[in-house]
Amino acid sequence: MTTTAPGADGRAAPAPAPAPGGAPAPDAAEDGPAAATAGSSPWQLARQELRHRPAVRVSLCVVLLFALMAATAPWLGALGGWSPEEFDKSAIDPYLGGQPLGSLGGISPEHWLGVEPVTGRDLFARVVHGAQVSLLIAFAATAIVVVTGTAAGIAAGYFGGRTDAVLSRLMDLTMSFPSLIFMIAMLSVAKDVNRIVLMTAVIGLFGWPGVARVVRGQTLSLKHREYVDAARVGGSSSWRILTRDILPGVCGPVIAYTTLLIPGMISTEAALSYLGVGVRPPTPSWGQMIAESVAYYETDPMYFVIPSTFLFLAVLAFTLLGDALRDILDPRGGRT
């Protein structure tokens, strides 16, 4: 039996007519896209964002391409037929100061991106091995920054009191320290050490306070939530609360911040190598190659253009991808 609501004059008001085809009336229909967005997980939102932003899809493809290139650098170099330290004197003209033979810096079927002036080393092999060095340092330094910053931020925000005061002052001290000058000085005086390990440690040493501040603020807003209070009243240990309740709540902002950290790490490694205090020859690096190409930018501009283009594309792709993830995963950021 169908019931109807009484009208103002006491008579029963007629029920709203169904829409054609048996669909519910417009005023009773739910807002499908809004409801789907409200109930979507962060990764579902990320997939929706990829569909709506062509630039993000392109950036993700470029990032995956660079990661694959770095992971398979030895095989790619062997595919080109040259190692990054192998000289090819037949590809340069000894009577013109070692300039590459042919046009566009010596690009040919034997050397896909040309060769270095004077030495004749294959640029394709050096670029792909340089990608491996640059991304290895960037990813390793970012991992150190994220792990250290997340641990310090959660501890400062959850425990508060003296722990928060000590960690906050340490953050302020580290952020106020002239990190670039210290990096240059440290890398200049360290001689017989693994340069990649040293650069990773030094870069990671000064990057964690930014992550710690973000995580601390997020933890302060989470530790008084009802589910955290319920876990505390239920007898859960601090470690269980931190790992089961607090950490999942800060993962979104941390992932977004991590993606934005990587292009900065790549630029820092390239800058240090450009200044001559980073990766040392014969190990290739994009920053080192750009520094060496400055002397030949008039006679062989391709030697400058090729590593600069790879560095630019890597930084731009990670930056665009990080901006998109920040819009999606950071609850304090506005979505576009």
Q: Which key phrases capture this entry?
A:
single chain; 336 residues; mainly alpha; two-stranded antiparallel sheet; 13 helices; 64% helix; disordered N terminus
Short structural summary:
With 336 residues, the protein is mainly α. The protein contains 13 helices and two strands, in the order ααααββααααααααα.
Topology, pairings included?
Elements: H1 32-38, H2 42-52, H3 54-71, H4 73-80, E1 92-93, E2 99-100, H5 123-159, H6 161-176, H7 179-189, H8 195-205, H9 208-222, H10 226-233, H11 238-274, H12 286-293, H13 301-329
Antiparallel strand pairs: 1-2
Description of the molecule:
The chain has 13 helices and 2 strands, in the order H-H-H-H-E-E-H-H-H-H-H-H-H-H-H. It has helices at residues 32-38, 42-52, 54-71, 73-80, 123-159, 161-176, 179-189, 195-205, 208-222, 226-233, 238-274, 286-293, 301-329; strands at residues 92-93, 99-100. It has a two-stranded antiparallel ribbon. Strand 1 (92-93) and strand 2 (99-100) form a beta hairpin. The longest helix is centred in the middle third of the chain and has 37 residues, at 123-159. It starts with 31 loop residues before the first helix and ends in a 7-residue tail after the last helix.
